[in-house]
Amino acid sequence: MKKILQPIVLAAVLALGVSAGVPVIAANVNDYAVVFTTFNVGAVENSPTYFADFTVEGGDLFVQAVTTYHWNYGQGSEPGTISIYDWDDNLVGTWDAVGRSGSGANNVNWDIFPNVVLKEGTRYYFVDSDNQTWSCNNESRRMGFVEVRGTNSVPSGAEKGYVEGQTYIFTDRNGVEFRASLNAFASYIVDFSPGDPWTNDADNMDSQVVLGLPNWNGAESEASQGDLCLGGGGAITLGFTQEIFDGDGIDLYVFEVGENVEDTKVEVSPDLVTWYDAGVAAGRTAGVDFQGTIPSGTGMRYVRLTDLRSHANGTWPGADIDAVCGIHSRTPSTDTSPVYDYETIQIVLNGHELTPTDRNGTVVEPVLINGTVYVPVETISNALGLTVEWDETAGVVYINNRQEFISEPEFDSKNIENADSAVG
Description:
There is one protein chain. This protein is mainly β. It has 2 helices and 32 strands. It folds into 3 domains: about 30-150, Jelly Rolls (Sandwich); about 160-330, Galactose-binding domain-like (Jelly Rolls, Sandwich); about 340-405, no CATH class. The chain has helices at about 375-385, 415-424, and strands at about 35, 45, 50-55, 60-70, 80-85, 90-95, 100, 105-110, 115-120, 125-130, 135, 145-150, 160-165, 165-170, 175-180, 190-195, 230, 235-245, 250-255, 265-270, 275-280, 285-290, 300-305, 320-325, 330, 340, 345-350, 350-355, 365-370, 370-375, 385-390, 395-400. The strands form 9 sheets. Strands 1, 4, 7, 8, 9 and 12 form a 6-stranded antiparallel β-sheet that branches. Strands 16, 18, 20, 21, 23 and 25 form a 6-stranded antiparallel β-sheet that branches. A 4-stranded antiparallel β-sheet has the order 3-10-5-6, with no helix packed on it. The longest helix has 8 residues, at about 415-424. The protein is globular, with a radius of gyration of 26 Å.
């Protein structure tokens, strides 16, 4: 990678004032402390000559957010990916960026939330997927604009894990040691549907805290931070850059924390289309073995956790998820990510345009995934005069003709067809 942009040496001294306590989890990048930046107020242009790089000093660095800048002459740029490499070209990870507006333009800031640990004394550089719109200037020494946020306080999860090289090592509640690649932790949110009831505690409502390494602060009740409350029956779907496969023993590990032991149903998928029931992850952190649940040799890129209502009450109803990782993982041989198309799709039923809505009347746009159009089943069923029932316990959608639910009148009435023949 360094042959594309020749990196130059820049040792970054970590910013003063970084908290020495447990990191506060937040959704806004501005809530994290800046530890390194090439951002400046000078006029910018596209296509930097060098990758931005820095050397970690003052202890291991827990990276909570990274931002690259794409002014692109006021046009911004559709978010791509940001990667972190060490100076020996070993990949730390690649993350899908989220666009953020700035200076009056959309998608000029690309944000990722790695939640990875960079080792003290090690030099790292950053790669942006769109060098043509990546901003730079003389003040940045022709390096791409990068801003790194984090803390020297590396969080310890419920399992008291630690990082060694590119591996996260932890011991479960039964004393069994597990090793997981730093790249094998969930890297992005596909979907999150809070359960009912859900918590009112803002510290446990941010789905982003599930990504990356375990970062629960170990506190109970109101002091708990770093975990997501699913709510009663709530579900979250996570995406992984690595494939998780069926190996010897435990294949997937779910870090569930908090005061109660709350189970989750675990489903896995290679493509967000075909799903496999992988079993139940017992609360208070537990592993799941894929043996007998997925096709042999198939890698899974997506995990869906659904709260099983073990404790669907109280201030924090449902399972409290800290992190999810693959124990047996590998780099995907091919890109199995589904292709989405959110362009306007019209649905015409018997010559009349149909606007899909959910049961609350909110418009739901159809989406095209790998050539298949997906719309709410309730919308189509209602339009066709069918009834829809959702059995949450069994996980079954029942679709029936409406007349099956219409009881016969208890009084004698004239049938219109018979009446017509009688008067004829």
